[in-house]
Amino acid sequence: MHTLPILTYNYDALAPVIDEATMKLHHGKHHQGYVDKLNAALEKYPELADLPLPDLLADFEVVPDEIRSAVRNNGGGHYNHSLFWTMLAPVSSKENELSPELEKLLTESFGSMTEFKQQFEAAGMARFGSGWVWLVRNQFGGLEIITTANQDTPLELGAIPLLGVDVWEHAYYLNYQNKRADYLGKIWQVINWQTVAKLAKL
Ligand code: MN3
User: Fold this and answer.
1) CATH number at residue 169
2) pLDDT band for position 10 (50/70/90)?
3) How far apart are CA 121 and CA 111, in angstroms?
4) Is 154 exposed, middle or buried (0-12, 13-18, 19+ CB in 10 A)?
5) Which of 97, 149, 158, 167 has the most CB atoms lying inside 10 A of its own CB?
6) CA 191 to centroid of ligand 1, rounded, Å
């Protein structure tokens, strides 16, 4: 049985970058919905329900046809959002501080922090419709910026997510309306760089 993770901060903790109403709906309704639908899909397959979610998402071959798209969409939704919440932290918190080690890694990979952020934002803007923009460690061990559609995850590409930002409209519409670029431009103020560093094994 999959369950909604409890946030380590309050719904209003990310304001003004992400407002309380958005967080409440996003975590309490959207994410809860993915969890409920994933559990419903796995009800008939207890042996799959007991597997760690990344095992299912990295290899859809193990998932029967009749629930494959439900697992892709809702399992992916649960996985992506569970990660996303840990990749956010209040403005000016300790977690929002970039360590010299991580800054060095990003600079080596993308030229500079400014360049990294520009490329990440541009990729997020270029993802048509709903999806995610990611910093991943690819299968060759290098850092790369990619996007996925809908609730697809980097796992099926053999990549390890280090940072993911939700660019579905439900993630920003209440506060930013159609202005995804404004949302992406401000998201840096609430990124939990400690989580990113940990996932990068720094
Ligand atoms: Mn979302």
Assistant:
1) 3.55.40.20
2) very high
3) 15
4) buried
5) 167
6) 16
Question: Is 65 inside any structural domain?
Answer: yes
What's the gap in Å between 81 CA and the centre of ligand 1? 6
Identify whether residues 107 and 176 lie together within a single domain: yes
Per-residue pLDDT tens for 99-135? 999 999 999 999 999 999 999 999 999 999 999 999 9
How confident is the model at residue 150, as a pLDDT? 98
DSSP character for 52?
-
> Does the predicted TM-score (pTM) go above 0.85?
yes
For the stretch 178-184, contacts whose Cβ atoms lie closer than 8 Å and that sit 24 or more positions apart, written own/partner, are 180/124, 180/125, 181/121, 181/125, 184/120, 184/121, 184/124, 184/125, 184/133
Strands 160-166, 131-137: parallel, antiparallel or unpaired by DSSP?
A: antiparallel
**Three-state secondary structure call for residue 57:** helix
122 in the same domain as 191: yes
Domain that holds residue 189: 94-199
Q: How far is the CA of 169 from the centre of ligand 1 (A)?
A: 8
Amino acid at 142: G
